[in-house]
Design brief:
Strand content of chain A: over 45%
Largest sheet of chain A: 7 strands, mixed
Number of strands of chain A: 11
Largest sheet of chain B: 6 strands, mixed
Order of helices and strands of chain A: EEEEEEEEEEE
Shape of chain A: globular
Number of strands of chain B: 12
Helix content of chain A: under 10%
Distance between the termini of chain B: 40 Å
Oligomer: heterodimer
Number of helices of chain B: 0
Largest interface: A-B, 29 and 26 residues
Chain lengths: 115, 114
C-alpha cells in the first residue's frame, strides 16, 4: 500500500516550458487535491476533484490545469511555466468530499524550479 | 478577513521541555480544525483533528490540542519534546465543515536543542 505517490520528485523547467505533475493514490479515495507550498505561505489549494469526472478551482488556480484521469489519478499541468510557479507541489486525497471526518493523506511532494 | 494565524514562525525548545504551538482562526462559525506535521523533505502527516465534543483532543506522537471557542484558538501541546519532533507544524481549518479542501496557516518551525 503506497498511499499517495507523486512523480517526478524534482523538476527544473525553463520559462515557457510545459509539464505535467502526476499523482496517484491506491486507497480508493474519491477526493483528490493539489496544493502548492511556498516559504512563509503555508499550503494553498490549486485545484481539487471531489470525485471522478469533476474538478473545481481552489485559491490559486491561475496558470494551472488539472485532469482527473480516473479514480486513482489526478494530474496537474503547467502549460507555460513561469518563475512564480517555482514551488513545492503536494497532492492529497481523502475518502469522500462532504465529510470532514475524512483525513487528507499527502504525497511526498514535487519540487519544481522554473528558471 | 477569514484567516488562520500561527503567530510564531520559529520556536526553539530544549529536549524534554514542554511545547505549545499557537493557532488562531477567524471564521464566523467554528470550523473543523487540524494540526499537521511536516518533517524536512517529507509530505504532511495528520497529528490530530477536532470536529465537535470534547475540546481536548489527543493525537499521535504524544501530542494534544485544546479547542477554546472564546479565544478562537486551537493550540497544540506536548508535555515533553523529543529531538525527533523537530519539524514544521501547520494548523489547518475546514471553514465550511464540508469536507472541502483545507485552509492552512503559514506554519511554525520547531527546533529542539539538546
Amino acid at each position: 500500500n503506497a498511499g499517495v505517490t507523486q512523480t517526478p520528485k524534482f523538476q527544473v523547467l525553463k520559462t515557457g516550458q510545459s509539464m505535467t505533475l502526476q499523482c496517484a493514490q491506491d486507497m480508493n479515495h474519491n477526493s483528490m487535491y493539489w496544493y502548492r507550498q511556498d516559504p512563509g505561505m503555508g499550503l494553498r489549494l490549486i485545484y481539487y476533484s471531489a470525485s471522478e469526472g469533476t474538478t473545481d478551482k481552489g485559491e490559486v488556480p491561475n496558470g494551472y490545469n488539472v485532469s482527473r484521469l480516473n479514480k486513482r489519478e489526478f494530474s496537474l499541468r503547467l502549460e507555460s511555466a513561469a518563475p512564480s510557479q517555482t514551488s513545492v507541489y503536494f497532492c492529497a486525497s481523502s475518502l469522500s468530499r462532504g465529510s470532514s471526518t475524512d483525513t487528507q493523506y499527502f504525497g511526498p511532494g514535487t519540487r519544481l524550479t522554473v528558471l | 478577513a477569514q484567516s488562520v494565524t500561527q503567530p510564531d514562525i520559529h520556536i526553539t525548545v530544549s529536549e524534554g521541555a514542554s511545547l505549545e504551538l499557537r493557532c488562531n482562526y477567524s471564521y464566523g462559525a467554528t470550523p473543523y480544525l487540524f494540526w499537521y506535521v511536516q518533517s524536512p523533505g517529507q509530505g504532511l502527516q495528520l497529528l490530530l483533528k477536532y470536529f465537535s465534543g470534547d475540546t481536548l483532543v489527543q493525537g499521535i506522537k504524544g501530542f494534544e490540542a485544546e479547542f477554546k471557542r472564546s479565544q478562537s484558538s486551537f493550540n497544540l501541546r506536548k508535555p515533553s519534546v523529543h529531538w525527533s519532533d523537530a519539524a514544521e507544524y501547520f494548523c489547518a481549518v475546514d471553514p465550511n465543515q464540508a469536507g472541502t479542501a483545507l485552509i492552512f496557516g503559514k506554519g511554525t518551525t520547531l527546533s529542539v536543542s539538546s
